[in-house]
Design a protein that fits this description.
By secondary structure, this protein is mainly α. The protein contains 10 helices and 2 strands, in the order ααββαααααααα. Helix 6 runs antiparallel to helix 7, helix 6 crosses helix 10 and helix 9 runs antiparallel to helix 10. This is Mpv17/PMP22.
Length: 253
């Protein structure tokens, strides 16, 4: 049936929506012969809007075009980064955390540096390696684990995730951070334990005033695959303080 015949059938039918419906059904499914992969038996594959029958493929193509137009509005770097998160999530999050720790340590040095001082690049390398080797991978595993055991995003579930972070992830990650940094500076086990006794508890207390707010926003509103990035972004400010604490003089053993 050509376009002219279809339009005549439409205008001759007083029930316009049913007219479109009947015309499309007869034109596409007449004789139950397959046309473009469809047949009369596959009528259930169509989506109905009111009395008007719309092939599912039209709806899918419309959604794809909408997603394509929205993604094209994103900056090129953001599109590239999101693709890397999908293809190589573990490595991408590790490198991102490493770069954030590097920037935070350089900022911390700028704040505390005397006028005639210079950057301690070995210290910055220690901070960057911690983000790459430990914190980036551990954040990826931690947030993925929480999303599996606590998949909901209501307020109660969000507070459960915050509590688990303060009780489990925070103390472990800070203990590893201080121990790792002290060991790379040549401190022995007794000196590392003395540093932990001096610095760990004040760090956890200060973290209680900072991290619950960041965690609430992260768990409540940020998609799971972007939560490590959000957490590392919040960690930029926190790490300025943390690297300062980690590079103080040795504690008395």
């Amino acid at each position: 049936m050509n376009i002219v015949g279809l339009s005549k059938r439409f205008f001759s039918d007083r029930r316009s929506l049913n007219g479109i419906n009947n015309a499309l059904v007869k034109a596409v499914f007449s004789g139950r012969k397959p046309i473009f992969g469809f047949s009369g038996r596959s009528f259930h594959e169509l989506r109905k809007t009111g009395n008007f029958v719309i092939p599912r493929v039209f709806s899918v193509s419309r959604n794809l075009s909408t997603n394509a137009s929205s993604s094209s509005k994103q900056p090129a770097f953001l599109r590239w980064y999101l693709r890397k998160l999908e293809s190589h999530p573990f490595m991408t999050k590790s490198i991102t955390t490493s770069l954030i720790y590097m920037a935070a340590d350089l900022t911390s040095q700028m704040i505390t540096m005397p006028p005639s001082g210079s950057f301690d690049l070995i210290r910055t390398a220690r901070m960057a390696s911690f983000g790459l080797i430990f914190l980036g991978p551990s954040q990826h595993l931690w947030f993925s684990y929480l999303s599996k055991i606590l998949p909901k995003r209501d307020v109660l579930t969000t507070f459960k995730k915050i509590m688990m972070g303060q009780v489990l992830f925070g103390p472990v990650s800070n203990t590893v951070f201080y121990s790792y940094n002290a060991a790379l500076q040549g401190e022995n086990s007794e000196e590392i334990l003395a540093r932990l006794k001096r610095d760990l508890l004040p760090t956890l207390k200060n973290g209680l005033m900072y991290w619950p707010v960041c965690d609430f926003v992260t768990f409540k509103y940020v998609p799971v695959h972007l939560q490590p990035l959000m957490n590392s972004s919040c960690a930029y400010i926190w790490t300025i303080y943390l690297t300062y604490m980690a590079n103080q003089t040795k504690a008395d053993s």
